Every structure is written in structure tokens, then in C-alpha cells.
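Late entry, evening session. Most of the bench is empty. Finally got around to the prediction I had been postponing all week. Sequence below, unchanged from the version circulated by S.P.
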Amino acid sequence: MKIHPPPSPHRRRARVHSGMILLEMLMAIAIFGMVALGLMRALMIGAQTAIIAQMELRMIQKMQSTLTEYSKVQTLQEGAYDIPATDIDMGVAMRVQVEKMDKLLNADGQPLNDMYHIMVTAEYENFGTKGQMTADTYRYANLYKTQAGAVTTN
């Protein structure tokens, strides 16, 4: 029969110490995982914000371009015009509304004839939510018409 000597206090401390190291490692891994998860969420939100900003910039540029195009035609006609969304526009659909303004007066009370209100509305989808932006202008109908005939001098 072999008799084993009782474990020394130094050996007992080493076992407890090695168990504490394992626990410390598990805690460090858990903390690192939570920090990494938080950073990933922050990066994802930053990426979504950049995409939204880019979409809004493109939408504003397209709205300005469309408003300029429809406000500078030679002959204005009342009506609504739909411009469907394409892949190039990142899914932005446009609607142009041209309305003749009746009973419009200037500051002196004089009637302003042949005035039109041109309104461009852009509709888009923003990560599952629908959004809308609007731009408008007013235009005198005869502003871009060419004059028939030439002035002659005697």
C-alpha cells in the first residue's frame, strides 16, 4: 500500500490559479465579443447612412434636372407626367405636375396671365420605408417661345 503525501499548499495554489486563468480567458473572450458586435452594428449603421445620403443626393440632382427640363420647354401643357423608376435611378420614380395658375395677381393687383406651376415629386424606398421629396417652380408660358418674323428698319 502506497501512501501519498498530502498535497503541498504550493500545489493547491497552482491548481486554483490555473482555474482562475481559464475563467479570466473566458471573460476576456466574452467582453471582446460584445465589443466586436457593437462595432459591427456601428459600421452597419454608418454604411446605411452613407447609402441614404448618396440616394438623396442623386434624387435631388435628378429632381433638379427634371424640373429644369420641364420648365424650359417651348410650349407648356397642363397635365401629369410619370417617369418610371430605373436601376440607374436606384429605384426613384418621378412625377411631374404642370398646372396653369388662374386668377394670379401681382403686387399692384394686375392679373398675371399664362403662369404655370411645375412640381416634381420623387418617390423612393429607403430600407423598407417609402419616402418622398418635392421641388417646384413657376414659369411664364411665353418665356421660351421664339418670335415669328424679324424686325425691319426703313
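Two things to note before I forget:
The beta strands are 79-83, 93-101, 115-126, 129-140.
The radius of gyration is 36 Å.
Will write this up properly tomorrow.
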